[in-house]
Amino acid sequence: MTVFIGLLGCGTVGSGVVELVERRADKIAEITGLRPVISKILVRDIDKPREGLVDSSKLTTNAHDILDDKEIDLVIETIGGIEPAREYILSALRSGKHVVTANKDLIALHGVEILETAERHQVDVLYEAAVGGAIPLIRPLKDSLASSDITDLKGIINGTTNYILSKMTQSSISFETALAEAQRLGYAESDPTSDVEGLDAARKLTILASIAFTSTVQLSDVRVQGIRKITASDVRFADQLGYVIKLLAVGTDREGRLSLEVRPSLVPKTHPLAHVSESYNALYIRGDASGDLMFFGQGAGSLPTASAVVGDVIEALRNLQLGVSGHSQHVYANHKPAVPSRDFLPYYMRLSAQDEPGVFAQIAQVFGETEISMSNVLQTPTEDGHAEIVVVSHKASAEHIDTTLKRLRQIEQVIDIHTVMPVES
Ligand SMILES: NC(=O)c1ccc[n+]([C@@H]2O[C@H](COP(=O)([O-])OP(=O)(O)OC[C@H]3O[C@@H](n4cnc5c(N)ncnc54)[C@H](OP(=O)(O)O)[C@@H]3O)[C@@H](O)[C@H]2O)c1
Fold first, then answer.
1. In 20, 116, 267, 309, which residue has its Cα 20 to 30 A from 333's Cα atom?
2. Starting from the edge strand earliest in sequence, which strands make up the sheet with 243-254, in order?
3. How far apart are CA 187 and CA 404, in angstroms?
């Protein structure tokens, strides 16, 4: 039996989906008993040249050609953004169509509304491709690891910032030069704000944390710091100390209190996450029964992302064939409170000060009085006659570090505290 599919959007991901559905149709029919056929494709510009794959007679610019087509049982959304994607998905669900989407922005911001609508109409809504591209993360957290209490998530889930930081490390270039190169190669958008400010990673963390910690999680629960302030000096100092800088998404559940952060961090060169470079993604998960696990792979791209989308299509077809559609989504009734992290970590601090006798002694005194011991100190003169000082502390709480920073700012000769980052162990 054939199942007709309507595809909303045929860009990077959508064109990969068209290719993969065609290529794998026989295999999918064999494993699900249902043959998927993409019968209509919504685009914005029907005259745009599209490489080989798309049969142009399937293209439409009218969403109702898909949403009102009673023959179509499943809709794949790869338009992106909030509207009109949200309106189209809700309309499809209300008409009893199953939905597969790659849209992290929409799921992070309107996930509850979408999942509840799917539940009410007994249809599936699946979104594996929304986080981590090709890497299966949602399904393992939802199913395979459901027997464990997940306590920790830590990962690199934004390819653009990982590409920029990797280039800054490999080629000793500034943030601005690395960003320009990422934009030239298509790894970063012309407006890179969402990526470099950490918002994209925060949205993905919202989705992952909700499933891992079985709680509704809102974007506002995530404390976000991007990578715009990271300089070539930070990268160089980190290297001298044996670390690389990575933008990490970190979530913990400590006895029902969640701490969710996206922030640049120093990662030891020997740590598995240090080797995740360019546009690759990785997620480390700790569960009480499962122990430690790490997922790694292509976090974006046409076919890698399409492979996750088509994986969801296969699940939806299986459910349809077995008559068990509408049970795959999880809407969590409880909202665990989000609190600042109380975990103890070493911290890296880079500051500039007047290059005068006695200044370093005053800085050391503040550390002594606030009971934070220093594990490493680097000091270099700068061209403008100041001193650049890097301190790596022993383990301390974020609250404790904040007190120390406040005291350091009161020292007259301290010009600025440029960067503060936790150090992973
Ligand atoms: N790119 C990746 O590697 C990646 C990875 C993971 C998840 N995602 C997610 O996948 C989704 C799609 O991303 P993408 O990179 O494939 O985007 P894209 O290349 O910009 O493609 C978007 C497609 O949607 C169509 N479209 C946009 N707005 C429309 C509208 N209002 N009405 C009708 N059609 C419209 C466009 O039509 P035209 O072709 O006529 O312009 C285009 O075909 C996003 O949610 C993104 O976050 C992407």
1. 309
2. 222-224, 257-268, 243-254, 150-156, 280-287, 291-298
3. 38
Amino acid identity of residue 418, one-letter, is H
Cβ atoms within 10 Å, residue 362: 17
How would you class 60 by CB atoms within 10 Å of its CB: exposed for 0-12, middle for 13-18, buried for 19 or more? middle
> Thinking of the domain 2-132+302-322, which architecture would CATH place it in?
3-Layer(aba) Sandwich (3.40)
| pLDDT range class, residue 329, cuts 50, 70, 90 | low
CATH H-level superfamily of 347-422 = ACT domain (3.30.70.260)
**Residue 204 is among the residues annotated as catalytic for this protein:** yes
User: How many angstroms separate the alpha carbon of residue 140 from the centre of ligand 1?
Assistant: 26
10 among annotated binding-site residues: yes
Q: How far apart are CA 49 and CA 39, in angstroms?
A: 19
Query: Does residue 205 contact residue 287 with C-beta atoms inside 8 Å?
Result: no
Contact partners, residue 226, CB within 8 Å, separation at least 6: 161, 196, 197, 198, 199, 247, 262, 264
Considering the candidates 97, 154, 167, 204, report the single residue annotated as catalytic: 204
Q: Is the CB of 48 under 6 A from ligand 1?
A: yes
Which tens digits make up the pLDDT trace of 32-62? 999 999 999 999 999 998 876 668 899 999 9
The token duo for 33 is 């008993």
> What's the CA-to-centroid distance between 11 and ligand 1, angstroms?
5
pLDDT per residue over 242-300, tens digit each?
A: 999 999 999 999 999 999 999 999 999 999 999 998 779 999 999 999 999 999 999 98
Give the per-residue pLDDT at 385: 84
CATH match of 138-298 with 3.30.360.10 = yes
Domain boundaries, the chain: 2-132+302-322, 138-298, 347-422
